[in-house]
DNA sequence: GACATATAGTTCGCTACCGAACATATTTGG
DNA sequence: CCAAATATGTTCGGTAGCGAACTATATGTC
């Protein structure tokens, strides 16, 4: 991205890209992207879920979610139905096809983690996570507006 | 991406997204994206450069670079001319407009780093960078093929 | 010199991500 | 009860990223 002249920042990006590329390589035969996988993961484990809940779950914005969902609907893996209680909301659920697919899927995350962080002790991993979590929070708190008061 | 159930992996992604979002917020008034910024950075500091060199510099693939370059050419910030020595290669250089723009640009990376990692001591930052660098290398080495022997 | 191979870029089609603007539906305030 | 505000989703247009397939140019090799 540019951040060649720093270290942690640049490597966070590169790590992210490498893992995303790998997840997508694993998922390609199944016609799924990384974010699509996570939507299926949620639906398989938690059952039907309002679409809006995925915003916080995936930490993405509405247009991104809208795209991901419509890809899954187009492929026939997910069903999107209006909530009778609130006509604004949509409930997402696995279709039969989607559930069938899920059964055959590998867990790409487990694979990535075992390759990427094998042999790193958990204290170190916790430290890394903490530094990055704090960095993320600072960026997100700063970004929204420049104003506080 | 999914990696909600791990720690360092998930936060590397979230940090990356937060910083990219912020860089793009800073650059939006100038009609530039994060990767586009880095191309200008290189050209401003190193002068005209063969397009192919940016593949290693930015660690991106050819189609991505092709897109970024054509966006910059379209906007009139960069000039793409064939290398007389080798008709396959293209040389990239700043236009007058591009150089003019560059002078007025803030350095988004410095801003990000100061916000994100302010107060973190450099030993810790080095450790984070090392863990992520190793993770990236393992992923990249594993990915290309599954075969060794 | 001719043919095979390697290199540089582009194009196509896709995922993933965002902000802005929009349509609807619900909730709140007067 | 009705107008204003809020919440949910979609659409549009953009950046950033990839693999596969393609063109054109160079470089071997026989």
Q: What does this molecule look like?
A:
- The structure is a homodimer of 149-residue chains.
- By secondary structure, chain A is mainly α.
- The first copy, chain A, has helices spanning 8-27, 34-46, 53-58, 62-74, 96-104, 108-116, 122-142, and strands spanning 49-50, 78-83, 86-94.
- Chain A has a 3-stranded antiparallel beta sheet with strand order 1-3-2.
- The longest helix of chain A is centred in the last third of the chain and has 21 residues, at 122-142.
- At the A-B interface, helix 1, helix 2, helix 6 and helix 7 of A face helix 1, helix 2, helix 6 and helix 7 of B.
- Chain A binds a DNA duplex (30 and 30 nucleotides) through residues 1, 17, 20-21, 24-25, 28, 33-36, 50-52, 60-71, 86-90.
Name the helicity range of chain A: 55-70%
The chain-level structural class of chain A is mainly alpha
Report how far the terminal alpha carbons of chain A are from each other: 33 Å
Task: From the alpha carbons, calculate the radius of gyration of chain A and give it in angstroms.
Answer: 18 Å
**Oligomerization:** homodimer
User: Which CATH first-tier class of the domain at 33-104 in chain A would you pick?
Assistant: Mainly Alpha
CATH architecture of the domain at 33-104 in chain A: Orthogonal Bundle
Going by CATH, the homologous superfamily of the domain at 33-104 in chain A would be Winged helix-like DNA-binding domain superfamily/Winged helix DNA-binding domain
Q: What letter string, H or E per element, gives the SSE order of chain A?
A: HHEHHEEHHH
What is the typical, i.e. mean, pLDDT of chain A?
Answer: 89
Unreliable segments of 5+ consecutive residues of chain A: 1-5, 143-149
Query: How many β-strand runs of chain A?
Result: 3
**Total helical segments of chain A:** 7
Query: Shape of chain A, please?
Result: globular
Protein name (chains A, B): MarR family transcriptional regulator
GO molecular function, one term (chains A, B): DNA-binding transcription factor activity
Pfam families (chains A, B): MarR_2 (PF12802)
Keywords (chains A, B): DNA-binding, Transcription, Transcription regulation
């Amino acid at each position: 991205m540019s951040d060649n002249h720093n270290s942690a920042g640049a490597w966070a990006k590169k790590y992210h890209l490498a893992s995303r590329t790998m997840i997508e390589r694993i998922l390609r035969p199944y016609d799924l992207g990384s974010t699509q996988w996570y939507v299926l993961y949620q639906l398989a484990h938690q059952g039907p879920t309002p679409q809006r809940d995925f915003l916080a779950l995936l930490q993405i914005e509405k247009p991104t979610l809208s795209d991901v969902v419509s890809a899954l609907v187009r492929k026939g893996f997910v069903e999107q139905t209006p909530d009778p209680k609130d006509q604004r909301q949509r409930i997402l659920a696995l279709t039969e096809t989607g559930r069938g697919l899920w059964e055959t899927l590998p867990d790409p995350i487990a694979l990535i983690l075992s390759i990427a962080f094998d042999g790193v002790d958990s204290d170190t991993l916790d430290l890394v996570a903490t530094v990055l979590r704090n960095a993320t929070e600072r960026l997100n708190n700063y970004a929204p507006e420049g104003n506080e008061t």
